[in-house]
Amino acid sequence: MRLRHLLHAAATLVALLPALAGAAPLGLVTIVDGSALALLRGSQRLAAGEGVALQADDIVRSGAGTRLARLELADGTTLDLGPETELLLRPQALPGPRAALLYLLRGWLKVGAAEATGIATPQGDLARVAGHAVVRVTGRSMLVFAEAGRVELERDTLRDGDAWVRRDGGTGSVYKRPPADLLEGLPRGFTDPLPRRSARFAASPAAPGPAEEPAYAELAAWLNGEPPLRAAFVPRFAARARDPAFRRALVAELRLHPEWDRTLFPEKYRPKPVPVARRAEPAASQPVAVAAPAADLQGPTSWPVDDRPVAWPAPPDAKE
Q1: pTM of the shown model
Q2: How many helices (H) and strands (E) would you count in the chain?
Q3: Residue 156 phi/psi, 5° resolution?
Q4: Are 132 and 114 in contact (CB under 8 A)?
Q5: How many whole angstroms separate alpha carbon 168 and alpha carbon 78?
Q6: Are 177 and 161 in contact (CB under 8 A)?
Q7: Exposed/middle/buried for residue 266 (C-beta within 10 Å: 0-12, 13-18, 19+)
Q8: In the chain, which segments carry CATH 2.60.120.1440?
Q9: Tens digits of residue pLDDT in 126-174
Q10: Which of 53, 188, 196, 298 has CB 3.0 to 4.6 Å from 302, enough for a Cys bridge?
Q11: What is the pLDDT confidence band of residue 320, given thresholds at 50, 70 and 90?
């Protein structure tokens, strides 16, 4: 148990390192009305209340008990979140044309931007927002309401009071006022002017809560999202694949995030051994069988015999 507490403390310290080192944060959480926000930083989940500093690639999630939360960014932009809203700040994985201040995965968001900024979503991108706009993403539908100022979408431009609606993944259409059914559940705080409070926390940001390991269900919508984001989340959450339950869930839904195949089954991607062509060995020399000459069984006794008497010459000095 003590080791676990030490690991949590170490993870919390890592999350605070940019602030401790004097690095300028992307922004601050300045208002939380209701339950605290969940902050996914790196592969850890932390609780974020008022005064917590924010970084690029942080995932911020409000719960059902969060009535309203405000993020104030260093460039002056304000982001008001309704309940059950989830967004990724300054996503590094999106390609150049889609580079955006944030990626809104789901929920309610009110943007106040003094300078034009971009917002990406699964249902369509806001190329530029200058002024105040309300965005709602739910399932395959999306509402964009230009409360004041100008909003440029992929093909349409909205001005004061205009709305843009996409239903069930269909083609988006411009309306003179937002449809009533899509305004149901609009957070009450979106209709009230809220004070800026970043100066109160800038000198001494608050520490987030203890670090915990997120479950697969908390990350599934991101891990199974758009291909550029999916690819970026593999190295970010690769360590979670060591957890048996997390790994089983990844394998069960592998078709939704095929980028994880290499991490889950590295043996499939190891170089195959190159077969070495072995030189054929010469055939072992066999002793040549030499046919022995046929045995001549005819001995001396078989030679021809001359029965005539032999006349031997007499020795030269022989006396008669």
Answers
A1: 0.79
A2: 7, 14
A3: -120, 155
A4: no
A5: 29
A6: yes
A7: exposed
A8: 2-202
A9: 999 999 999 999 989 999 999 999 999 989 999 999 999 999 989 999 9
A10: 298
A11: very low
Compute how many other C-beta atoms are within 10 angstroms of the C-beta atom of residue 225: 18
Identify the CATH number of the domain defined by range 2-202.
Answer: 2.60.120.1440
**Which DSSP category does 94 fall into?**
S
Q: Is the dihedral of CA 55, 218, 93, 31 positive or negative?
A: negative
User: Per residue in 42-64, pLDDT tens?
Assistant: 999 999 999 999 999 999 999 99
Cβ-based neighbours of 71, under 8 Å, separated by 6 or more: 27, 28, 29, 30, 54, 60, 78, 79, 80, 81, 89
How deeply is 139 buried, as exposed, middle or buried, from its count of CB atoms within 10 A (0-12, 13-18, 19+)? exposed
Region for 41 from its dihedrals, namely left if φ exceeds 0, alpha if ψ lies in -120 to 50, beta otherwise: beta
In angstroms, rounded to a whole number, what is the distance separating the alpha carbons of residues 147 and 178?
Answer: 10
The C-alpha R_g of the chain, in whole angstroms, comes to: 44
Name the residue with tokens 């917002």: 119
Report yes or no: 42 and 236 within 8 Å, Cβ to Cβ: yes
